[in-house]
Amino acid sequence: MSFDIVAIVLFSTAGTYFSRVIPFFAGFLDRLPIFFKRFLQVMPVAALGALLFPGLLTDFSHAPAAGLVGAAAAAVTALFTKNLIFPVLASIVAAYLML
Amino acid sequence: MDFYIFLDRAFLNHYSPCMSMHPVGHLGKNPIKRGITAGFPIFIGYFPAAMAFGLIANNIDLTLYESMLFSMVLFAGASQFFALNLIASGAAVYEIVIGIILVNLRHLLMSASLSRRTTAKSIGARLMIAFGNTDEVFATASSSEGPIETPYLAALEATAWTGWVTGTITGFIGGSILPSGLQQSIGITLYGMFAALLIHNVQNEYWYIPVAAAAAGLNTILVRIFHMQPGWAFAVSMILASLIGAALLPKVSKSFREAK
C-alpha cells in the first residue's frame, strides 16, 4: 500500500468524521447563519462542475471527441435512470466506439 | 417501493427529506431487523455505485487493498470519486485531503439534524452512529417517525456500509477481467460518473446549473491560463462558485425551502 494513499485516506477520514460527529456533541450548529447553510448545500454541485472541466478536455487530449461523447452518453443515460452503473457503462461503450 | 437511494442523493442535500421512500418498520419489531430492512434499498443502490468506484480505482492503478481502505474507512461515496480524480491528476496529498474535507462539510448539517432525533445518550453510541451518517442513511433514517433508536440506526448503517464495501471489491475484480480493448476506454468512466451525477442534481434544482457552470469555467481558467495546481484550482473554484450560488440563487431552491 502506498504511503500517500494511506495518508490521503486517514487524513480525509479524520476531517470527514469530524463533520459527522461534531454536531452530536455541540448544539451551536443549529444556529448557523442561513448563508452558510446555503453555501454548504451548493458546494457538492460546484465540485462536480470543477471536476468535469477542464479535466474532460485535457485528460483525453489524444482523442478529445471520445471523452466528450463518452461523458455525453453518460449524461443522456442519467436522464432515464437513477442507477449509476448504466451511465457508467454507456460512457465506456461510447468511448470504446469512438477510439 | 421507490428506490430513492442512489449515489446521486449524495448531492441532493435532503437535510430533512419529506419523501417517504421505504416502508417504515413497525415499532414493536426488533430494531436491528428494522434497520437491516430499511438499509436494504441503500445496499442495492450502493453496490453498483461502489462497483464503479472499484472499477475506476483499478483503472488508475490503485491496489485492491487501497480501494478497500477508502471504502471501509472513509465511507463517503461522492468524495471517494473526487479523490480518484485528484489522485489521477497528480495533486499533492494535502490538496486532495482539503478537497475531500470541503466536499464532506455538508455532513455537519445532516448530523445536526440527526442528533436532535437520536436516542443515543452515551458518548460511545454517538461516536459510533456518527461514523455511518452518509447522505442516504440520513435520508432514510429521517423519513421514519419518532425518535431514532441506536440499534436501528447502527443496523441501517452497517447494511449500507456492507453494500459499499462489497461493491468496491466486486468492481475492482471485475475491472481486472475486462477485455483489453475495453480497458482503454475505461478512463472515461470517472467523467461519465460526474456527468451522470450532475444531471441527477440539476433535474431537481435547475438553479444548480449556473453554479456548476461557474465552477467549471473558473477551474478551467485557473488551470489553463493561470497554471494553478489542480488541487488548489479545484478548491478555489468550488468555494467561489458556492459563494456565488449561496449569495444569488437560493430563494428559488425547492429542497432548501423543504429543509427549513
Structure, described:
The complex is a heterodimer of chains A (99) and B (260). Chain A has five helices and no strands. The two termini of chain A are 33 Å apart. Chain A has helices spanning 3-21, 34-52, 55-58, 64-78, 85-98. Residues 1-26 and 256-260 of chain B have low confidence and may be disordered. Chain B is 70% helix and 0% strand. In chain B, helix 1 runs antiparallel to helix 2 (64-74) and helix 2 (64-74) packs antiparallel against helix 8. At the A-B interface, helix 1, helix 2, helix 3, helix 4 and helix 5 of A face helix 1, helix 2, helix 3, helix 4 and helix 5 of B.
User: Could you name the ranges of chain B where pLDDT drops below 50 across 5 or more consecutive residues?
Assistant: 1-26, 256-260
Helix content of chain A: over 70%
Distance between the termini of chain A: 33 Å
Helix/sheet category of chain A: mainly alpha
Oligomer: heterodimer
Largest interface, with Cβ-Cβ < 8 Å?
A-B, 77 and 112 residues
Order of helices and strands of chain A: HHHHH
Tally of DSSP helical segments of chain B: 13
Straight-line distance between termini of chain B: 26 Å
C-alpha geometry of chain B: globular
Largest sheet of chain A: none
Number of strands of chain B: 0
The unreliable regions of chain A are none
Q: What Rg of chain A is obtained from the alpha carbons, in whole angstroms?
A: 19 Å
Mean pLDDT of chain B comes to 81
Helix count of chain A, per DSSP?
Answer: 5
Structural classification of chain B: mainly alpha
Outline type of chain A: elongated
Strand content of chain A: under 5%
- Rg of chain B, alpha carbons: 19 Å
Q: Tell how many strands the DSSP assignment of chain A holds.
A: 0
